[in-house]
Amino acid sequence: MTIDVLVRNNVKVLGSGSQTIVFAHGFGCDQDMWRYIVPNFMDNYRVVLFDYVGSGQSQIDYYDAYKYSSLQGYAQDVLEIMKALDLRDAIFVGHSVSSMIGMLASIQSSNYFRHIVMLGPSPRYVNDLPSYYGGFDRRDIDELLEMMQMNFIGWSSYLAPIVMQNSERKELTDELEKSFCSRDPHIARQFAEVTFLSDCREELEQASVPTLILQCSDDSIAPVEVGEYLHAHLKNSRLQQMTAKGHYPHLSQPEETSRFIKDYLQSV
Amino acid sequence: MTIDVLVRNNVKVLGSGSQTIVFAHGFGCDQDMWRYIVPNFMDNYRVVLFDYVGSGQSQIDYYDAYKYSSLQGYAQDVLEIMKALDLRDAIFVGHSVSSMIGMLASIQSSNYFRHIVMLGPSPRYVNDLPSYYGGFDRRDIDELLEMMQMNFIGWSSYLAPIVMQNSERKELTDELEKSFCSRDPHIARQFAEVTFLSDCREELEQASVPTLILQCSDDSIAPVEVGEYLHAHLKNSRLQQMTAKGHYPHLSQPEETSRFIKDYLQSV
């Protein structure tokens, strides 16, 4: 049986232009999270959107707990999407865990990638002190995962305001809480576990595609130390500090987010 | 904006034949639950499958908490699907709460319906003693809904074996548990509330479409008394007792389920 990758991952292709730009959503989100960014690129780029299996309107039947027990499973799907669309030298914009998924994919097949833009990336969320500060104790992550298991709805309403920041704009938190709760809790929990326990530090030195690291302010998921670590260990990388607060600048500050991506692409 | 009903409800049309048969899934399920039944009808019928909004691969963006705060919202969607497919005199097979959804739709527009087959139906789940026995105390339902809110994953693994029966066939319980957990917990909880607190007893006398009531054995959701009540209050109804145990005979005993539906359709 051949898999229809474009259906499986609910792939959408918009806009026109000879240069393709792929936007990849993060944990607990889907392609709709890019809706404020996409209009800024549609005139000059061919825009590709998709949902990871288990997220958004992907075909949930393809969810495979073994395949998706590591970020490599998701990276494989990114490559399959790029192959199905016959992409070469695309720009890949990944939010959060998608930054590392894109990087892993680029290590495997760098010809698909011209540039990578990482939005709020982290190669490892759990501290590995004294050499590495990720922002989380292992115990914090275990508690979060246990809360997902025991009280999924409560977990989403607990986490959303912490990671969104921008508390004066309640609609942002509401959207995120709703998004966290929009899919299969078992799948969400496994994706959370795979994300928050991932460690891509060793792979950083194998990456070669030029990369922009967009570092948010007051980001409880990916603190400034993590952005600096990434920049130091990732060849051909540029680090850009944003004024946008929280882990979802594409929702909270889409203008700044779009501008930094465009500025980078024009400068390279 | 016109709504593409066939996309919204992930409508699939299979098989051939001049007579159309619509299969409507119940709470916590989707159209895939009919997969053992459909092959038995595809040669002689045009088979229509769909997912209610919020279930399966429906377009979750169309979920509207107000519209779906009563079964009438779902009945409206059934009619919209039938209209979009230009159906007349179709056979409607509804599992569980879909039996009542189909009946409500048929009261509004009977011309779409030739026959209705109700699989494990109940016009009211909560007891209204001494005149009506539905099988549940109101307190049972409230506890179930609270459990969904507080521990969604725990709720699904608690409920699945109770309603599936057939404990020696663990794969059935596993599938149901997975299905219960396959969508947005907020939506699932509202659908549960709307289902388990529904009361369609007054509407029974307005229904006129000839109906087969398939009564399961050892069904903790729809006990025998409920089937008998329905038969007594529903004009043109036939009551058929099944040997199939539990609330999901289309999964656990697809041969018997298909045979009773076929026998009924051939006899009328």
Automatic annotation (TrEMBL), chains A, B:
<keyword id="KW-0378">Hydrolase</keyword>
<feature type="domain" description="AB hydrolase-1">
    <location>
        <begin position="20"/>
        <end position="252"/>
    </location>
</feature>
<comment type="similarity">
    <text>Belongs to the AB hydrolase superfamily.</text>
</comment>
<dbReference type="InterPro" id="IPR029058">
    <property type="entry name" value="AB_hydrolase_fold"/>
</dbReference>
<dbReference type="InterPro" id="IPR000073">
    <property type="entry name" value="AB_hydrolase_1"/>
</dbReference>
<dbReference type="Pfam" id="PF00561">
    <property type="entry name" value="Abhydrolase_1"/>
</dbReference>
<dbReference type="GO" id="GO:0016787">
    <property type="term" value="F:hydrolase activity"/>
</dbReference>
<protein>
    <submittedName>
        <fullName>Sigma factor sigB regulation protein rsbQ</fullName>
    </submittedName>
</protein>
